[in-house]
Design a protein that fits this description.
With 252 residues, this protein is an alpha+beta fold. It is 46% helix and 18% strand. The strands form 2 sheets. Strands 4-3-7-6-5 form a 5-stranded antiparallel β-sheet, sandwiched between helices. It has a two-stranded antiparallel ribbon with strand order 1-2. Keywords: DNA-binding, Transcription, Transcription regulation.
């Protein structure tokens, strides 16, 4: 039975390359045409493949509907939370998770620092979009034209002497973040708070959320916080794999 399931599932990536006839499917699976036809009929009955008028098969609409439904029902916060807790346990600093919605970057999860000196932030609160590390990560993944349009509409408050001064500087930083795959806020919002973040990606490689570690410089210096970047990126990658369904199956 497992071999049958394996063969049936092997048809789907073949058809993702484009329509294929019975002979092509049988050749790819290295089975007789009668076996390939039986598998195709079963997939067709479930709407996962469709038989065209030219007798070739392509992926069925039901497969796309299932994929869309699965994506819509994914809760990145639920998936990420255990990883955020584990990161907080290792480093002790405040950990945030954020998303981009309706022209705002919002915190959707937070794990508090275990140190007595903490930063003020709360779930559901918009972040300072021109300086926050999570905002840079989320906006840097947008198409260039959209990035530029957003940057030109924003105000650029001078929170500190390190705040992003204007649209040109913001776009330059977004390009750097897009290329390097991580971001920082080193005193840009509050002189005493530093932050380092990494993106969380979906199955298509697009950034769906961003996470960060923040700490006041009375607890750790900016340089000390930057040493946590590999750990932050590994955590973000682990969340990305689980969110996109790329994690290896665990034996029961």
């Amino acid at each position: 039975m497992s071999q049958t399931v394996d063969r049936a599932l092997s048809i789907l990536p073949l058809l993702a390359e484009g329509p294929a006839d019975l002979g092509q499917v049988a050749e790819r699976l290295e089975v007789h045409k009668s076996t390939a036809l039986r598998l195709l009929r079963t997939l067709h009955e479930h709407g996962l493949v469709y038989r065209q008028s030219d007798q070739r098969y392509r992926l069925g609409a039901r497969l796309f509907a299932l994929a869309q439904e699965a994506v819509e029902n994914l809760d990145v916060r639920e998936i990420a939370h255990p990883h955020l807790l584990a990161l907080n346990e290792k480093c002790g600093h405040t950990v945030h998770l954020a998303v981009y919605e309706e022209q705002e970057v919002l915190y959707i999860d937070k794990v508090e620092s275990r140190y007595p000196v903490r930063m003020y932030s709360r779930i559901g609160k918009p972040v300072a979009i021109t300086v926050a590390a999570v905002a840079k990560l989320l906006l840097s993944d947008l198409p260039e034209a959209e990035r530029r349009a957003i940057a030109e509409k924003l105000d650029y408050p001078t929170y500190t002497s390190r705040s992003t001064p204007n649209a040109a500087a913001f776009l330059k930083e977004l390009s750097a973040v897009r290329e390097q795959g991580w971001a920082t806020d080193l005193g840009g919002h509050e002189e005493s708070i530093n932050c380092v973040g990494a993106p969380i990606r979906g199955a298509d490689g697009r950034v769906v959320a961003a996470m960060s570690v923040s700490a006041p410089n009375v607890v750790v210096t900016a340089d000390e916080l930057l040493t946590l970047l590999p750990l932050v990126r590994r955590t973000a990658d682990a969340i990305s794999r689980e969110y996109s369904g790329k994690s290896p199956l665990k034996e029961a």
